[in-house]
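ok so i was messing around last nite and threw this chain in just to see what happens. nothing serious, just curious
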Amino acid sequence: MSTSERDLELWKQWKRTQSPQDLQMLLNQLQPLINRQINRWSGSLARPVLDTEAKILATEAIKSYNPNMGASLGTHVTNRLQKLSRLVYTHTQAARLPEHKAIGMATFSVAQETLQNDLGREPSQLEIADHLGWSTPRVNEFQRAYNRKELLTSGEFNPASFPIADQEDPIIGFVIHDMAPTTQTLFEHITGYGGRPVLSNKELQKKFKMTQGQISYQKRKIKNMFEAAMEKGR
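result:
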């Protein structure tokens, strides 16, 4: 029996039973494949972080696999594990973040995903703190940074809720340095950056003598500036 045939046999067994034991047996069967993908990034992030994320991604791949689509289970899992590169890029940012912050962000992200899978809902900050052995203020800092990353990479941008986790984050500094003075002040009043009061759209229109359309344009412009800064690290 070939490896792919054994993979499929174990997948069918898990599909019938949905038991954790059969899932673990299938993950053990796929472990050499998983290890190959982890090894590609083992010098970029701590091995336990990669191991945990890879297990999450492999489990997601197993649950979403459809043999009728033509690809083998191994191929499907390998494709899913490509997201490890996103984890490394997003959370390491070697040229931008100190190593301890990069590892902290990766650790936080994996913990949040693990708890979300276990609980079936978004974990609270206290639950994350208990899981990691962190203080709640530290969890709050990384939660805000994580939310900022998710906000920037999503299709929608609501700068009024744009969280600033660390005003010394080079990404923030690089972008603000390139802003025109008016855009910088606008950004500060949209986000509260630098201790500025957060203003509503109407207050922004009045203060900057802009229409709603112009305010919306500036928000999109700010979003694009941050996305461009993040893209430079690829």
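not much to say yet. Residues 20-41 form the longest helix (22 residues).
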